Amino acid sequence: MQHGPAVRRRKLGAELRALRTAAGLTSGDAARLAGWHQSKVSRIETGTSGAKPADVRLLLDVYGVHDPQLRELLLVLSGTGDGDGRHHWWHAYRGVLPPTYRDFISLESQASAMRTLETTVVPGLLQTPEYARAVTEAATEGASEERLDALVEVRLARQDVLRAEPPLELWAVLDEAVLRREVGGPEVMARQLGRLAEASRLPQVRLQVLPFSAGAHIGVTGPFVIFSFPRTSDLDVVVLDHLTTSHYLERKEDLRAYSEAFEALASHALSPEESSEFIAGAAAGV
Predict the structure, then answer these.
(1) pTM of the model
(2) Locate the HTH cro/C1-type domain: which residues (predicted)?
């Protein structure tokens, strides 16, 4: 179990090592071509030290890597990205967002798919503004109106990944408690359930409800998110949220365990079609 930055360093180092090997270069060759000491290449590849974006760009040039999407992904792992700035818009909120949340958003912005189990609240990518504010206010008791406004702005801005080209593919399993918990009052909850019903019809969104009648399940231990990335499964990561921080799991055995758990939860949940009807019923007070 690691915090986000450590996981990103290790994943970045592993990917750079694989690219160096594919280019037929030793670490000494890479260091010579980059004008560095060999120890610097070794520290980057083992994740012992971070790599600046300029360092990553130089190594990718040395390895002959020109794929723009792969370069962008590796630059995000180093803490930034190229392009028009869309992938690091959250930097404007550095004074408001804790580092682990910024890490989460940066991974979310580059992921191709996201699987999530939610046991308490609606996934942030599907929240209405009123619902997002009610959840944020409850989670940050005593926060100023200015900070609340900024956090809600961030929550809503994150939803752009569902409208990107290509969009993030979201597969969410929602415990029935998510639909029954009255967040923000009856009117706010009614609009939120309507938003879920709309989202369930989007081609990039798959929603499944795990009803109370399913009984105890493996998800009772808490919610989790699995991010998957284009081109390589080696960058996939599991995120566990806690009150004051988030933890990131990267080991293959952890990824396998959580992927199997998610598949089991999905198999016990209602189908997407049944879930859509269930959500509509909850909205109607059934």
Answers:
(1) 0.80
(2) 16-70
